[in-house]
Write a structure and sequence with these properties.
Length: 375
């Protein structure tokens, strides 16, 4: 046994029952008193060299020492595009997110640009008649996404436009590539050839960045080579490098209509997307894509993979993007709707955490709301 412990603290005027605002802490009358608590008596301040709470005392101090700050330029808005002239279509599992026809898409892009959002990522939702097993409509020179890119770039040239390179909106089976002869798996090399052609059409339509989200091996090198051979040396590649086989993509698959694999078994992308259990494989994928010529490295989803964002951030000199995916958005929205979480606060905290983990930019369905708030 040792000597009895005597602990002393300073007793602030709060003890006197005076109501104080948060900002009054420590500045209001500091009374000293003796507080008996069991065997301990408190009549002197603790002998502490560091009192971290000193820097949390007032709102201005807290602002001064804030290490991570969100700004509109941090965000990329994913947008869904449809053909025709119809009204914006709400997506049930993503409240506040709509599919826009090209004309409304331009309006939305103008608004985002005005709010300081630097980039949009476009995803098409196609009618069933444009889907087949080979995803052939992805190479249609009059395809929806190519028209959308041209329209946005001519209406809002300063806005950076990103397009998705993957076949899932175009295939009846919903996979990101074409299937092997047996139909059991996605054929890597044939898919890469198609995706390279698809990316070139997008580059020629004027897109600033292509974003291959297919997770085929070797696609970054193939696309870079295709671009350079065609003289499209200025089109950048944002590689979905560490893209996990995630259940958080559910609402997105509703949005682009890729969840129902017509007539086939349930869609599993486990043979190409990363196993959520695997950190070393994710780091390896990022290194491969960097070597193959990626200009940006992406981690996706974001919130459940903050460790991967940090790992990639520490290993690459390239800008790191993170995608706060549809399911991350949906879960915050759903809990808020039930009154279980505060929407604005959770939204902010979730994005702050992604940036703090090391993301330079965040694809998020909250982009517009955040830009409005921060602008
Ligand atoms: C597919 C693709 C997906 C997302 C972006 N591109 C889903 C998938 O892999 O099935 C998900 C985005 C989100 O959930 O918000 N190429």
């Amino acid at each position: 046994g040792g000597a009895p412990i005597e602990v002393t603290i300073m007793v602030t005027s709060m003890m006197g029952g005076k109501a104080m605002g948060v900002d009054d802490f420590g500045s209001g009358g500091r009374g000293r008193g003796v507080l008996k608590c069991g065997n301990m008596s408190f009549d002197r301040p603790l002998d502490l060299v560091e009192r971290p709470r000193r820097l949390r005392r007032t709102a201005s101090l807290r602002r001064m020492v804030q290490e991570t700050v969100l700004r509109p330029a941090d965000f990329i808005a994913p947008l869904f595009v449809i053909d025709g002239k119809g009204a914006p279509q709400p997506i049930k599992s993503m409240p506040g997110v709509f599919r826009y026809n090209v004309k409304d898409l331009i309006k939305e892009c103008r608004a985002l640009h005005k709010l300081g959002v630097p980039a949009v990522a476009l995803f098409p939702k196609l009618a069933a008649k444009f889907k087949d097993a080979g995803g052939t409509h992805a190479l249609d020179e009059d395809g929806l996404i190519l028209r959308a890119v041209a329209a946005v770039k001519s209406a809002v040239p300063e806005l950076t436009v990103i397009t998705d390179v993957a076949l899932d909106p175009y295939t009846t089976h919903g996979h990101d590539g074409v299937l092997t002869e047996s139909g059991d798996d996605v054929d890597n090399d044939r898919s890469v050839a198609i995706l390279s052609e698809m990316a070139l059409l997008q580059a020629e339509a004027g897109v600033d960045i292509v974003a291959p989200s297919d997770m085929m091996d070797g696609r970054i090198a193939a696309i870079r080579e295709t671009f350079d051979d065609a003289g499209q040396t200025d089109t950048a590649i944002m590689a979905y490098s560490a893209k996990f086989n995630s259940a958080y993509y559910g609402p997105f698959r509703d949005a682009v209509g890729s969840s129902q694999a017509a007539g086939t078994r349930l869609l599993s992308k486990a043979t190409y997307q990363l196993d959520p259990a695997n950190r070393r494989q994710a780091i390896n994928e990022a290194a491969l894509d960097e070597d193959e010529g990626a200009d940006f490295i992406m981690v996706k989803p974001a919130g459940a993979y903050l460790d991967i964002i940090r790992d990639v951030r520490e290993r690459t000199g390239k800008p790191v993007a993170a995608y706060q995916v549809s399911g991350e958005y949906a879960q915050i929205q759903a809990a808020a709707k039930l009154g279980w979480l505060d929407l604005e606060k959770c939204r902010h905290e979730s994005l702050l955490a992604i940036k703090r983990a090391g993301a330079d930019m965040i694809l998020t369905y909250f982009a517009k709301d955040m830009a409005k708030l921060l602008g």
